[in-house]
Amino acid sequence: MIFKKDNLKLGLVLGLVGPILGLVVIYFIKYSTFSFGDFLSTFFNTGRLITSIGSLSLLANVILFTIYINTNRDFTARGIFIITLIYGIGILVLKIL
Question: How many domains does the chain have?
Fold first, then answer.
């Protein structure tokens, strides 16, 4: 199974996909009355939402990171961590702008 592999590329891909899935889950749980386009537009243009929803969407990476660290797949966990840092920096930059 692909999730049992331990390599950096898999971690980078999982790190990219995790927050996107987290964002979609947040949309369906709390903002499904809006269209997804309106939700994304509001998300990127509202500083408060960027930090709160962005941080919540990164929880998906925290869960993935914890799973891979606890199963001693350190290279995959390293990739997830790298992408999580990049997302976090991106969220800070979007908040500042």
Answer: 1
Q: Where in the sequence is the domain holding 41, given as residue range(s)?
A: 2-96
DSSP 8-state code for residue 5: -
CA quadruple 41, 44, 49, 54: dihedral sign: positive
Query: What is the pTM for the complete model shown?
Result: 0.84
Sequential DSSP letters for 44-82: HH-HHHHHHHHHHHTHHHHHHHHHHHHTT-HHHHHHHHH
pLDDT at 1: 65
- Angle at alpha carbon of residue 18, lines to 83 and 43, rounded to 5°: 90
pLDDT of residue 62: 94
For residue 11, the SS3 value is: helix
